[in-house]
Amino acid sequence: MNQKHRPYIVLFMLSLLFLAGCGKPTGNQPTGNVVVEKEKPVVKIGASLSLTGGSAFMGEGMRNAMELAIHNLGPTKYKYELVFEDDAMNPKMAADASQKLITIDHVDAILSLSSGTGNVVSQFTQPNKVIHFGVASDPTVAEGEYNFIHWTPPEEETRALISELERRNLHNVAFISFNQQGEKAIMNDFSHRVEGTEISVVSTKIFNNGEKDFKTYLLQIEEERPDVIVVLAFSPEIEIIMKQIKELDIDTPVTSIEAVEFSEQPELFEGVWYIQAADPTDTFLADYVSTYGKQPAPGTANAYDEVNMIVAGFERAGKNPLKKPSTAEVVAELHKIKDFPGALGPLTVPESGIVLSHAVVRMVKDGKFVTIKP
Prior knowledge:
Oligomer: single chain
Distance between the termini: 84 Å
Order of helices and strands: HEHEHEHEEHEHEHEHEEHHHEEEE
Shape: elongated
CATH architecture of the largest domain: 3-Layer(aba) Sandwich
Mean pLDDT: 91
Number of domains: 2
C-alpha cells in the first residue's frame, strides 16, 4: 500500500467508528421514553408475609404470585424489584419487618397478609408515605391515604353467609373465633345485619393464639342448641377444632368464612360448605398452575393484583422515565383505578381504599375446594 495514503485511510476508519457510535444508544442514553434497563429508576415492592409457621403456604402463595406478576410485566418506564420478609403472621415480627423494609431496603410499597399484621404494617407505612396493600378483613388496615386493602370485605362475606343460612333454613348460629381484628370485623358485621331477621347469634366463644383445648368451648356451644357452628380461625387451631368436634361426636353442621382454606388438610372439611373471598379468573389459575404446579392459596391472586396495581400506579404517575414519581402521586393514580383487569376479575379502587370484589359459596368435595354458588 502507498505510504502517503495510509494516514487518510486511518482517519476514514475512525470517522466510521465515531458515526456508528453516535447512531447506537449506549447504557447512558434514553431512547424516546424508553430507558436502558440498568439506568431505569428502581421501584422496590416489599412484603411482610407468613413464610414460616402454620400459614406459610399462604405467604408462599403470595410470594409466588408477586414474582409471577413481575415476570409477566411488559415494557415499563421503571425497573421493579421485590424484597421479602417473614413475619410468621406475628404482629411483633411484622413490626420488625416493616422497619427493615422502610429504613434499610427503602421500599416504595409493602404487601401484608392478615388483619393482625396488616394493622401493624399500616402504622409504619402511613407516616413514612409508603404505599401499603393488605390482604385483610379489618377495614382499619386501610385507614390513611397510603393504606389499601385488596380482599373481599366483611360486608360482602357476611351478606353471602346470611343468604346461604336463610336458604338452608339455619337460624340459630354459634361462633367460635380467634381473637383477631379481622374475625371481629366479620362477627360485628354479621350481628348488625341479622338484626330484625329470623337469624340470631346464640353463642360466641373467643380464643387466643396458641390455645389447643377447645372442648369446653364446644360443649358450652352445644348447650345452646345451635343450628350451625361458624368457625373463624387460622392453622393450626382450625384443624384442632375440627378434630375435637369429631372426638366429641358433635353432629351440628359446621361452616366458616374463609377459614376452611386456611388449612392444608381439606379432608377434615369434607362436605362442608363455607363462604370464601372472590374466585380467581380461569386465566390466572391456568398461568399459576402451569408455573408452580399447584393451586393458588388464599391471597395468592390478590398479591398478583396488588403488584400490578402498584406498577400501573407508578407507570401512570411517572412523567419522566429518568425519575420515578412520588408515592403521593402514585396514590392519586391508584384511586383512579376502575375496572382494572385483575386476577380476581375487574377491580375498582374506591375512596375508602378497599378494592371491591364479591364473595362466593364453596364446598369441599373429594378433598377439593369447589365453588357451588359464584
